[in-house]
Amino acid sequence: MRINHELYHALVAFQIHRLKRTYRDFVESPTFSALTRFFLEEVYSTENKAERDAGIKKVYDKFKEKVGADIAENVQKCIRLNDLTDRLDLLMVKKLEEMGIRSNFTQDEYEEAYYLTDAYDARVEQIDLIVSCLRYFHGLSRYRSIGFALTVLRPYALLRGARVLIDFLQAGYRSFRSAGATTEFEEAIQTRELERLDRVYSLGKRPPTIADLRRRAREMGIKGAERMTLRRMMKEMQRWA
User: What pLDDT does residue 46 have?
Assistant: First the structure.
């Protein structure tokens, strides 16, 4: 599948910026800062992503029969989350292209593409998987033996050319350990992301509000839209379209 890499990277950067705004209180929290930044700057990042993802799948395939059903099942969930996120991002890139939108898209254009991808159920699954993986791996980080095992494995990983993977795993372990109970963070993700999802998908169920129309008029470059009557603003938008 052909990928518009410029648009893809712009999409990821846009979404990371959005997540930083949505979870600013956690980013700035001494308790959750390291964990939140790990998710935004390491997990959901394009840097070294292909190499890291391939490494995780390779390790999983090799050891899934030896680590126990519980760990295997939860690692599989994280792989599923990663693959699902990639698929949804590529759907967004394709939709933005179909709409003739370039990498400097606006919030409204982004949300319109988000709605038109028609992937509501997949978005709900994505949110559920994020919360599930967060909860499980935070629990694992409570075991100091995990950190010790990663330290012991590091020289072997470096010899096998797996620096990106071992760096990622150790950074994750440290960031999870730095947080106390993650219930507050989990609930925030579940609540905020579902509220946002339902708001965006309501675009297809309601007419635009006057505020929506004024915002669109400003984006079209119509000066003085905030002072116009609704009838005049609609005429101006039709003239400019």
Answer: 62
